[in-house]
Amino acid sequence: MAKNKRKVKKGGFGEIVVRFSKSKTAVIGLVMLALMLLVAIFADLIVPYDKVLEQNQTLMLQGPSKEHWFGTDELGRDMFARIVHGSRVSILVAVLTTAVSLIIGGLFGLMAAYYGGKVDTIIMRVVDTLACIPSMLLSITIVATLGPDFINLVIAMVVSSLAGTIRFNRGVMLSATQADYVDAAKSYGARDLRIMLKYVFPNAIGTVIVDTTMTVASNLLSASGLSYLGLGIQPPSPEWGAMLSNTKQYLRTYPYLLFFPGLAIIWTAFSINLMGDGLRDALDPKLRD
After folding, report:
1. Domains defined for the chain, CATH in brackets
2. pTM
3. How far out from the chain centre does Cα 122 lie?
């Protein structure tokens, strides 16, 4: 008897999963990212938060050992505990910044693409103004003005990334607004909001997802850079960029202090980029044929 094989719907979620799973690098990136997310989620079970702040002068600047896997810092704090709990802060800043930027940038990009005319002109002129200022410089200026803390860091990074997010989403949505099904929806009197949310945005979501994935990695590096400059998360809260900044004077004598936080940043950003490349190939309509 011939075995019945379940067919995967072309262009559906099943096909996307199959295409994604065929990319070894994408699967490796997904596994690497999943491990880091598990560390962030179960940080309290892996190591108590008390060890993050616990100082011991007799244990200052001790290298990796059985008791302290990643060694101790200049205050005798356990580096492993700080990196594990720092994953929550670093990843949360990157994800939250990307999510807020996507919501705001996606909304204005969609409005500019759908309405065109004066709406498009006004939005894009504001975008051009923001784009004249380098994003890192704008972030530094905002944080320096508002003060360095978690909320102000997110605000600064969202504002500095809005220009690129709006411009990208406008370009993606513009092609979707010119499709025949949009004209058909307008002809039978569908409301603008319904057309944008039901017809335009869903047909551009694949490209938006890929760009958003890449943006998370970029924001992670930006947040770490700002914290390294002393404009992000402030001590004693654990954050990978701040940990690099606090121990940079020990680069030659105690390199492990910079190696482990740097490895955590590279591991996370690299895994996100690998997964993003796989998503791009899986969602590319030109490769489905």
Report:
1. 50-273 (1.10.3720.10)
2. 0.84
3. 28
